Amino acid sequence: MWDTSMFLSTLTPKFYVALTGTSSLISGIILIFEWWYFRKYGASFIEQVSLNHISPWISGDTQSDSSQASTNGGANGANGTGATTMSECKVWRNPLNLFRGAEYQRFYWATNKEPLTYYDMNLSAQDHQTFFTCEGDAGKAEYEIMQTAWRERNPVVRIKAAHNALEISADCAPAYILLAEEEATTILESEKLLRTALKIAEANYRKSQALQHQGSVSEGVHRRDTNVLIYIKRRLAMCARKLGKLKEAVKMFRDLTKEIPPIMNVLNIHENLLEALLEMQAYADCQAVLAKFDDISLPKSATICYTAALLKARAVAEKFSPDIASKRGLSPAEISAVEAIHRAVEFNPHIPRYLLEIKPLIMPPEHILKRGDSEALAYAFFHLNHWKNVEGALNLLHCTWEGTFRMLPYPLERGNLFHPYPTCTECADRELLPSFHEVSVYPKKELPFFILFTAALCSFTALLALLTHQYPESMGILASSLINYLSLPFQFIKDRWPCNLITRI
Length: 505
Prior knowledge:
single chain; mainly alpha; two-stranded antiparallel sheet; 1% strand
């Protein structure tokens, strides 16, 4: 029978050095892979494999689990739970999105970094197809060209397609929109192209309005022309805002908020109006707009919540001192301001780090996820100066925003003033934001057990490898003694097993 001690005695110190070094290398590779997987997907790879594949296989419940999941999925779809989960991570068009040619492209020229992801641009292409195309475009060469132009990934091809459409018909307003968005390299050029598009869009709107009741196709054409007209007016108002013509911009935004087509629910033009009024420091007008849109029945946004907090902070921030407040307590006005800040931070906890310049800003994406890091960037990019214009507002925010988290339960199974913070925001934000940006994550995820385990295993094996390399003979003797000690129970069972068998016979 094989003698364990004889086998161990034949092993040289080099064997132990190679064994511990190889073990350390393998555990290190596992640790690196686990860490990379956790940073990308927020979970442990080993844990996911064990839960999703190994455990059902061992228990034999794979089929029943899948059928139960499909049943639960159908039930959720019926009772609205599934729809609620999807709506939590609904991606919205950024109301303050920049111009690609005049702003995003100039950033790329300066930094050689792509500010937009393909996922974000693909969402914009889908928006443009929805807004600017219809069934009535069939047979119209210029509109058929534009239908394919929105889907093109290469901006040069898109711009060339827009020029081709204008060569066929100079009355193709969507082609002017594309050129204003992507070919124009300054806001002035964009405004000039949009004003040309506005004249054409108004004429097309009047023409289709007279024919809109002549069938579903005519209604679709009129709806498309309405969308084109509203979109051009909004972008012209944004050009006026960027060029410093604030009164003109505010008037245009006010007029647009009175429109009622479905596109208005997507554009959220009241957020453009709030931002322009804050730039004018027309705080009373801002309060009037908030009174209309900060309603319990309407969906919230970072712009609404943080603007409400800023207006309340403005009344007390200039004279606020944390030392004095800790001694005498907070006044009713200060309590109201602090509660408004807590409300805003609970809605989107990522924004204070950008407003306080703890984390660097980047250009916002064309689409945002409410309560996510993408919305935080979009808000802070345009509203940081508004907070700086209010004396002491950032100081009040700095002193009070972290107190929000003491009011929330952990884990976040329920919220305080809003629904629980959605867990899907991180994945969606990583798709919307460029790779060079470090996505803000809330709440901070604890390291999974298997990452800690592999880290400990890697450290232990690396220490063994180092000791074995430095003291090969001593470590060889120690390893032999340890293996002999651990093998004693098995040796005892092996020695006793034949005797028991003979006795029974």
